[in-house]
Amino acid sequence: MSTQIYEQHYRRLDASIPLRKQRWIPIAREGLKALIALRAYLGLIAIAWLPTFGRLVQVYFITRFPEARRIVPIDDKFFFDSMAFQMPWMLLMAAFAGSGLIANDMRTGGLLLYLSRPLIIGDYILGKVSILFASLSMVTLVPGLVLFFGARSLAPDILGEWSHLMLIPKIVGFALVTVLPTIGIVLVMSALARNARFAGLGFFFVFVGSAVAQAIAWRATRSSYAGLISIQACIRRVGEAIFGLKPSRMTAELPPELAFAVLATIVVVSLYVLKTRVRAVEIVK
Amino acid sequence: MTARVVFKNASRWYGPVMALNDVSFELGPGVYGLLGPNGAGKSSLLKLASGQLRPSQGSVELLGRPAFGSPEVFHSVGLCSDTDALFDDFTGLQFVSALLSLNGFDRAQAHKLATEAIETVDLKDAMHRKVGAYSKGMRQRIKLAQALAHQPEVLFLDEPLTGMDPQNRKRISDLMKRLGDEGRTVLVSTHILHELEQVTRRVLLIHNGRVLAEGDLREIRDLLDRHPRSVRIKATNTRGLARELVTLPDLVSLNIEDATGHLLAEIRKPEAFFTKVQELSGAFGVEEMWVTDENLESVFSYLVSK
Which is it for the CA torsion A167, A169, A174, A179, positive or negative? Predict the structure, then answer.
């Protein structure tokens, strides 16, 4: 059947304007703007920074009372512990900032607003990842780096050597290992749940549930490999390896490479799920 | 000669459900109406046309490229969807500017184009208010503004007049007409005949996923005029309005619904009725007016049976 329903003659348009680069940036920018407008978001960041300021005060006292160095040495473990302490804040931030990022767009059909623009689903996902990356970095990576540079300026005699600069890649590496799988899980929950609250609950369930499962499995088997069940244990084990620290008791025998493989798998699977799940149009079967 | 929107034997099904069945047509510049009752396949057709869905069979081309998987065409395409999803925490200006930034416009350009588009849909006074506080009609208009703002060649408008008061319906209808006159291709989906009548005479009539009729709206309308249509009106002074309308010659019945206070009218020749309501809308506070779907459904059934 052919139904020609126009009469006018006109010039053919071939839509030849190419896609521009970095199409995800406006999505990230507008998403961050919307978050920054929320007092709760800023409040959460402020609270998450308190432990870092506490650590800086600690460093200050150590410079005043050198004998305190014996009790709290400023070494790799100091920075690892400080960053590991940020984990609960990071989880809260991920749930707050991330659980609605895709769920709200999918529930309301807001995805159409994005995908009726010259960009692809990958740009949309990258934009959302960037929003979370910036938010989670504000409570992990940035406090870690601020602590390092703050401590270095307060205690140049302890951290002033060039070799101490190696702490920077360690801090960056541990922050990435912490943040990237977390982003993957919270965005997958957001895409699957289509409801921000359920996504947040699902996210906590995965993190807390996997830790509980690890504890139960460890009690039953006394095997360090039970740590592979827990996302937090894997993050911690890789972090310990990055900072060159002795592993904790429950993951003493767990190879960090294996823990890293688990985290990398989470990231890859998350991206795959997001790519297949995120659609502008709901397909009802 | 080539067209901007080309459907070639396009079908789309969701599992066992056939949403669109072997549809072929071509659209050039001008305004086209896509008319059909709820569930007819209008939204599926628009989503196929705008590249949001891949056809299960056949092909859909937009500006010379396959509509699905060619995001670059959206430099020249605007979509006003039927969803009510907006960025409620943004002001109207921020909302349109933010979406323009996705098209690659820098901040200054986006601000300028957004302001122009908002003025076009007559929302300038409200552009610094949050979208979340907009009325339904204002939300429709800001959605239209974001679809127009980057001055696209092709516009897909899904039920653009829903929830608007008579004055704004007229204003937006005039705007659509103007866009068509400028040489843009505008495909407007609606289930209200009268809305289309103010904008275009070229229509695609769709029912059960098939293009049932195409061509001149007046011919189709003549068929429909044999059937009275139900109109629902929401106004602040319903009784006063009823007193004025009751004398119209083609009125079949007039009632005030107890539960909602809406005025329900059955009319045979709606043109004079709509004109009269429009004249009286200011005096009696007419907020919304729409043709109820059930009746249109029966009209389609009538057409199907012919």
Answer: positive
SS3 assignment, position B202: strand
Which one is predicted more confidently, B180 or A1? B180
Q: Is A125 exposed, middle or buried (0-12, 13-18, 19+ CB in 10 A)?
A: buried
What digits encode the pLDDT tens for the residues B89-117?
A: 789 999 999 999 988 888 899 999 999 99
Contact A117 B78 (CB under 8 A): no
pLDDT bucket at A8, cuts 50 / 70 / 90: very low
Q: Does any CB of chain A come closer than 8 Å to the CB of residue B74?
A: yes
A24 to chain B: which residues are within 8 Å by CB?
A: none
Provide mean pLDDT across the span B237-263: 87
* Interatomic CA distance for residues A162 and A1, integer angstroms: 77
How far apart are the CA of B138 and the nearest CA of chain A, in angstroms? 17
Q: What three-state secondary structure class fits B5?
A: strand
Q: What is the mean pLDDT of chain B?
A: 84
Segment A143-165 shows an average pLDDT of 88
Establish if A22 touches chain B: CB-CB under 8 angstroms.
Answer: no
Residues near A264 by Cβ (< 8 Å), separated by ≥ 6?
Answer: none
CA count, 13 A, side-chain hemisphere, A145: 11
> Whole-prediction pTM value?
0.78
Is A279 in a helix, a strand, or coil? coil
Domains, in order of start, for chain B: 5-222 (3.40.50.300), 227-305 (3.30.70.100)
